[in-house]
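Mods, move this if it's the wrong board.
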Amino acid sequence: MNNLINWLETRTGFKAIMHEALYERVPGGARWRYVWGSTLVFTFALQVITGFMLWSAYSPSTRTAWESVYYIQHEMYLGHIIRGLHHYAAQAMVVLMAIHLVQVIIDGAYKAPREMNFWLGIVLMQIVLGLSLTGYLLPWDQKGYYATQVTTNIMSATPVVGRDVQVLAQGGSAYGHLTLTRFFAMHAGILPALLVGFLALHIYVFRRHGLTVHDPKHAPDTTFWPDQVLKDSVACLAVLAVVLLLAVFRGAEMSAPADPAVNFSAARPEWYFLFLFRFLRFHAVESLGLTFGAIVVPGIIMGIITVMPITAKVLGNTGHTLNKLFIWSLGAGIVVLTAMAFYEDAHDAGHQAALTEAHRDGERAIELASGPDMIPVEGAVSLLRNDPYTQGPRLFAQHCFSCHRYNGHNGRGVLVTEAGKDKDAASVVAAPTAADLGKFGSREWMSAVVTDYSGHFAWMKNSAWFREAQAKSAAGETVDYIDPDSSEMADWTGGNEESLKSPENADNVKALIEFLASEAAHAGTTYDPVLVEKGRDLALNGSWAGALNGTSCAGCHETIGQPFPAQPDDTGAGSYPTMAKYASTAWLKDFIRHPDAARHYGAKNEMVVYSPQKLSDKDLDLLVRWLTRDYVPTNVPDYADQTDVLKAALAREK
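Not the wrong board. Structure tokens:
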């Protein structure tokens, strides 16, 4: 070993280099407060190592970025750990940088002759923040896509050159492929190169002036090796442990593929930028404009920090005290604004619903990409665009929620509200004016139709057309309209309620419900063939027990039990709606396209006609397949059922 060391020494002179590096004088002895600079360098080294690993599998294009990150996260060996380390180390770097800045200012390590090193540190801070911003976009998911759009819009608010800076960063006036490639070039090439260069200068100037200590008489002087090296190593190990634990047990989030057609209202910057996000939402700041809040104020703050060495030189101890007071006040303000942002988001029902949808979409995209069909050639964005489980709720919220509800909400997990009765009154929960479609075509739906027709369709009585028709009827006019309380079906279920609930017909009711549900034939549902045949006999022949005997569905609905025709017409249609494959995909598509046809109540039906111009064939297919549960099976939780919440809210409002 000595021969090897001597051989290296004669050729490289490494002993002198190591002595210079390790035996730096530490006035006042080794202390834990000096570890922050070393942990920053360590974290950056961790970022470089994991960054190269990620780079080896990443493909920077709008059609392959999300796909390659999915591969890293779910296919590559230990890829989720590597990505998690990179993700959380980036956040740790921002935190450590803030602590290091505060420590430098408190210890006065920015004072002459160390001004240059302080300014180099500020440049390094800007580069680190730039790395955070540019890395956010690279997964090309919804979260990064929309958050980075906000960032580029802020760039445009820069006085004079704002628009040019935005175009330069985006790669043109449009936000897309060139934006991604430019951000990747900055994140993986330009900014790391600048960071390495300025870090080398920073360390060089630091070694030139030595360590600045707050109280040099704290303990006897020592050297960097071994005491301070030990403390730095323990601190670096602690940082690594925290980051690794987060990577293993929490992992880096991966939201749905970026889709400009979807309004991603859940977008937020990373938590360490939330203070600025919240600051910009103050009414006074909004009234002064984006330039003031996002450019002028941060510029003034950075200007004050930059001139701190001059302030301390001109004003002496008073200047240093003012600098410390400013940095503590700034830190407190950042903490308060960040806490406000978290608190307000946590109590914002709309934002929480958007977050739920975002998590749902992200999990569903990963689930579909992991399925047997994997990611199609046209890219991962098509996974959700062609998925009824994803698009159905959005189409329902766009076209249906004004009358219907889906398990009490608008299809996307949000209770529907309307303005209060008084001008200044708070919004109230809006009552539905049509049936809740959450369990459409299921056994529960069929059971409610058969045993509680009036209650099942009672929401219709909240509609304006129902109240108007009821008023005209009360005034003596002849009005033909659907009345859940006064119809043949309501009379049948209401008049036979005792017999329907009797023990002698319990099995018959169960069989009829099974038959009706089997006619809907919703995907993923199996039916008892024995019960189905028994129910068919009841529906066609009325083989009931007791008072119900002889009453059949076919007595009114002549088409019950028949296939839904490929080209339905109204030949022979009476006043009763068709029951041919009632609630099936074919029936529901026809109902939505032609609700005013004689086979669907005709003029009685108040539902809007959805022509192909209003609802495309593709969207109709997605909506109906969602309602009939015809989609790739999923383990992703659906939106919570809010039927009881809706009923309770309406009861309070009464």
